[in-house]
Amino acid sequence: MKITLNIWRQPNPTSNGAMQKYDLDGVSEDMSFLEMLDLLNENLNEQGEDPVAFDSDCREGICGTCSLMINGVAHGPEVTTTCQLHMRSFKDGDTITVEPWRADPFPVLKDLIVDRSAFDRIIQSGGYISVNTGSAPEANNLPVEKAKADRAFDMATCIGCGACVAACPNGSASLFLGAKITHLGELPQGQPERDIRVVDMVAQHDHEGFGGCTNIGECSAACPKEIPLDVISQLNKDLRTAMMHGH
Amino acid sequence: MTDTQQAAPTTVSDAADFFTLGAPIADTKAPADASVPTRWEERKAHAKLVNPANRRKIKVIIVGTGLAGAAAGATLGEAGYQVESFCYQDSPRRAHSIAAQGGINAAKNYRNDGDSVYRLFYDTVKGGDFRSRESNSYRLAEVSASIIDQCVAQGVPFAREYGGLLDNRSFGGVQVSRTFYARGQTGQQLLIGAYQALERQVAAGTVTTHTRHEMLELITTEDADGVTSAKGIIVRDMVTGEIETHLGDAVVLATGGYGNVYFLSTNAMGSNVTAAWRAHRKGAYMGNPCYTQIHPTCIPVSGENQSKLTLMSESLRNDGRIWVPKKKEDCAKDPREIPEEDRDYYLERIYPAFGNLVPRDIASRQAKYMCDDGRGVGPEVDGVRRGVYLDFADIIARVGRDAVEAKYGNLFDMYAQITAENPYEVPMRVYPAVHYVMGGLWVDYDLESNVKGLFVAGEANFSDQGANRLGASALMQGLADGYFVLPYTIANYLADSHERIDESHPAVVEAKKSVEERINHFLTTNGTRSVDSYHKALGHLMWEYCGMERTKEGLTLAIEKIRELKADFWKNVKVLGTNESLNQSLERAGRVADFFELGELMCIDALNRRESCGGHFRAESQTPDGEAERIDSEFAYVAAWEWGGEDGHSPVLHQEALSYEAIEMKARSYK
Fold it and tell me: Are residues A57 and A40 part of one domain?
C-alpha cells in the first residue's frame, strides 16, 4: 500500500508545532499502525530528517503507553489501542492525519508525545486501598460476590492511556476517575475509604485542569478497554453520598 | 565469600578460548546450618533491623517499577525510608510486568488437591532442571501464600467462584491447580495493585518517582580492602537530556529481563539490559546469561517489518489441544477439513502423563521439530511454515462457546485483532518466541550482588528459576522479592553504617563523564546505518545460534559475527538530533550497544555449558530419544561471569556449586 500521512511535528514543549506531510510506500496490511510509523522513521533517518517521536512500549494493548489521534479519533477507527490497530483498517491511497492527544492537562513534550503525569497525581490523591505490606488477612476470609468481583475487574482493566480525555470535548477525565472509583468501590476492601477517596480524587482531577462531564459519551466510545459510561454515574453517586456524609 | 568445592571439569570447555577461570563463589547468607525449610525464618530472625527513627535518614534508590520494583518501593516507603524510584516509562504503571497474562502461583491448597509449600518448591526446582539455588526456590514457595493475601487486601480483582472464594487454574509442568488469575490480565492487575501502593507512598512523602528517566551508569567506590560498593546512579532525563546524579545508601535494580537482545521477543519495545549491564561492567557478576525461556505459544511472525511478538497465555494449553498434520501435503489445507485421524497431537502422543501441559522448554522444542520436519502450518516465511495449531474445538463442543469466552475472551479477541482470524472458528496458530530470561545479575540469598549495597530483584536477578521457569512463577518471584524478601535483607545491610559520598567524589565525576562521552560518540559518529537495523541483525544472530537449539559450531560463529557487527556499529551508526531534547534514536543506541556485549557473553556462556538443561539445549547433549541431557558431574554450578574489560579482555568465570539436600537431583522427565 501507498499512503499519505499528515503528522503533527513539534520539536519541544515550548515551540509551536505544525502539520507536516509525508508520502509512504511499501506499507503492508499486516503491519500495525506503529510498525508503519517505524517504517516512516527508518526512511526519515536515512534521509537525515529527525524521526517522528511517538510513545509505545508493550505493543500488545495493555500498558497504555501508545496514544495518537488518528483522523480525529483517539486510537483510530477500531475499538482498540493504536498498537493493536493494523493497516488492514486502511486502504491504498488513503491520507491519514496523526495528532497527539489534545488536552491542556496533557502538554505536548515532542511531536506526538504528551505528558500524562496528571493521571499519576490523581491516583496519588486516593486511588488505592491503604494496606501496608504484611498486614493482610488470609485471602479467603473475605468472600466477594462473583458479580461484584467481575464488575470490579471490568473497571480495573482501564490502562490509563488518556483516550477518554482526548476524545472528550470538555477534556474531562471522568471516565478514568469513574473506573477507579467503581473498581475499588465494588469491593468490600474498598469501603473504609470510599467517601474520602471520591472527594479527594475529584478535587485533584479538577485541580489538574480536566473539564467537567456533560454526558456526551465520546470517552466511552473511544475507550480501548470499553469502560462503560455508567461508571461516571457511579462516580457522581459516590460523590453525592460522601457529601451527604458531611465530606 | 568463602571458597567452596568446585565442580571439577573433566573435559576442556568448548569456550576455553573465550574466558579465564576465576575463583569459585558461594552464597554465604543463607543459614547453612538450618534445614532448607527453616532457612528463611532463621535468616529473618537474625537479620539486623533499622530503628524507625533512623529510616527516614536513609535513602534507597530503586530502578524499575514493575512488580519487584514497585512492591519494594511501596514496602520500603511504608517502613519509612526515603525511596527514589526511577522508570523509563511515562508512568510507573506501564512497566512490562503489566503484560503478563496467565496468573500467579501460590501454595494455598484451596483446591485440596495435595498442594503444599514443599510441592511448589519441588515443582520449581524440578521445572528449573536442578539449576536453581535450593534455598531461594524454597523461600519463593514459602512466601507465595502471603502474596495472594496482600494483593487481595489491595483490591486486586482475582477471578472468583460463585461462592465468592478465589478461583484457581492449572499451568504447565505441574499436576495441581495453584494458579490465581484475573482473566487474561493477571500481570496488569497485580501491577496496578503495586503501583497504587507506590503512589500512596508518594502522597505520604516517602517515595519520589522519576518517570522518563533512564539509568545509564552505576556509581561505585572501592575501599582499602578492595571491596566495591554501590553509591548511586547516573540517569538521563529523557525529556530534557539532562544527566543527573542520584546518590543513596543502597541501590536496587528491578529492571526486568534482557529478552530484547533477540530484537523480536514478547518484551516491551523499551525493555533493555542497560542498567544491569552497566552494573556488570562496574563489577557485578552476571549469572547464567544463556538461560533464556522460549515461550511455546506466541503468535507466529507475519512479516519482516514486525517489531515485536505477542504471547498467547500458557493457560490456553489447559483447554486447547496442540497438533500438526500427520502428512506434509495437508499443511496448506483448511485445518477444519483435516480429519481427526490425520492429525498428530504430538505432545499428547510423546508425553501422555502431562500432555499439552509439559513445561515451556519441551513444548517449544517439539514445535520447532515439527516445523523443521516440514509439518508446520500457516504462511511460509523464508520457505518454512513456522506454526502449530492450538485448537479449541473440543472444549467449545464440551462446555460451550460462552464458557470459553468467559475464561479466555480477551485472549481470543487479541488473537483475532492481530491475525484477522477467529479462534472460535479456526484453530489458533502459535510458534515459540523469546519471552523471559532466567539469567541475570548474580545475587546471594539476600538478593545482594557481589557489589555491596547493590540489590537485584525480579527477572533482573538469576536466582530462583534455574534453567527454566514454570508458568505463573515470574509474577510470584517479582512480588516475593519486592514485598517480602528485600525489605528484610536490605534492612540488614542498611543497619550498618556505610560511607557516603557527594557529587564531587571522583567516582561520580568519572561515571558522569563516561555517560556524556558515550552519548557524544553516538551523536557525532554520522554513520550510515540506523540503530534498529543493527538491532535486527544482532537479534537474527542470537535467534539463529543462541535460540532453541545451540551447537558448538553455531555459537563460535555467532561470537565472531557479533564482534564484527559490534565493531561496525561503533563506527557506522547513525543517530540524528541532539542530547538536549527527547531523542528516541539516542535512547535506543545506548541500549543496543549494551545488547552487543551481552549477546557475546550469552554465547560464551552457552558455549561453555556443554550440556542441555531447561531452556538451554545443546544439540551435542541429548538422549537417544532426543530429550535434553544434563551433565551434573560437570555443570551443576551457576556460571557467574565477571566483566573482563574492553575488547581483547576475556570475561572471568566464577562457579557457584549447586547442591541439593531437600530434593534428590534426578533427570527431569515429563513422560
Answer: yes
* Pair (A89, A179) in one structural domain: no
- Which chain A positions have a beta carbon within 8 Å of B310's beta carbon? 59-60
State the pLDDT at residue B520. Answer: 98
Mean pLDDT in residue range B418-423: 93
Q: Find the residue in B nearest to A118 (Cα).
A: B91
Burial B176-193, CB ≥16 within 10 A → b, else e: bbbbbbbbbbbbbbbbbb
User: Phi and psi (nearest 5°) for B426?
Assistant: -115, 145
Residues 6+ apart with CB under 8 A from B178: B105, B106, B107, B108, B109, B111, B115, B120, B168, B170
Collapsing DSSP to helix, strand or coil, B380 comes out as strand
Cα separation, B209 vs B211, in Å, equals: 6
- Helices B486-494 and B39-46 cross at an angle (nearest 10°) of 30
A152: domain CATH number is 1.10.1060.10
Residue B4 scores a pLDDT above 50: no
Any B CB within 8 A of A145 CB: yes
pLDDT in tens, B306-332: 999 998 888 899 899 999 999 999 999
Percent of chain B with pLDDT over 70: 99
User: How close is the nearest chain A Cα to the Cα of B491, in Å?
Assistant: 15
How many domains, chain A?
A: 2
**Cβ atoms within 10 Å of A121's Cβ, excluding its own:** 17
Among A110, A139, A155, identify where a domain stops: A110
Domain termination site, one of A91, A110, A129? A110
Same domain, A132 and A221: yes
A220/B contact by beta carbon, under 8 A: no
Cα B527 to chain centroid, rounded = 33
Whether B118 and B105 have beta carbons less than 8 Å apart is answered as no
Same domain membership, residue A106 and residue A80 = yes
The sign of the dihedral angle between the CA atoms of B272, B275, B280, B286 is negative
Query: In terms of C-beta density within 10 A (0-12 exposed, 13-18 middle, 19 or more buried), how is residue B308 classed?
Result: buried
Q: Which residues of chain B lie closer than 8 angstroms to A32, CB-CB? A: 307
Query: Can you give the pTM of this predicted structure?
Result: 0.96
pLDDT of residue A100: 98
Distances (CA, A) of B530 to A42, A200, B51: 7, 48, 53
Is 70 exceeded by the pLDDT of residue B639?
yes
Based on the number of CB atoms within 10 Å of its own CB, is A132 exposed (0-12), middle (13-18) or buried (19 or more)? Answer: middle
Q: What angle do CA B648, B652, B657 make, to 5 degrees?
A: 160
Same domain for A99 and A150? Answer: no
Active site residue B609: no
Q: How far is CA A245 from the centre of its chain?
A: 32
Q: Does A11 touch chain B (CB under 8 A)?
A: yes
Report helix, strand or coil for B490: helix
For residues B138 and A216, what is the distance between their CA atoms, to the nearest angstrom?
Answer: 54
Which amino acid would we find at residue B317?
A: R
Radius of gyration of chain A (CA): 20
Chain centre distance of CA B530:
27
Tell me how far CA of residue B26 lies from CA of B30, B45, B496, in angstroms. Answer: 10, 22, 22
User: Residue B284, class by beta-carbon neighbours within 10 Å (0-12 exposed, 13-18 middle, 19+ buried)?
Assistant: buried
Rounded Cα gap, residues A241 and B620, in angstroms: 70
Which residue range is the domain that position A122 belongs to? 116-244
ipTM surpasses cut 0.95: yes
Catalytic residue among B321, B360, B386, B609: B360
Q: What is the pLDDT of residue B3?
A: 41
Reduced to 3 states (helix: H, G, I; strand: E, B; else coil), residue B259 is helix
Domains and CATH numbers, chain B: 295-434 (3.90.700.10), 506-636 (1.20.58.100)
Contact A58 B94 (CB under 8 A): yes
Contact, B167 vs A153, CB < 8 A?
A: no
* Residue that the C-alpha cell 534453567 belongs to: B467
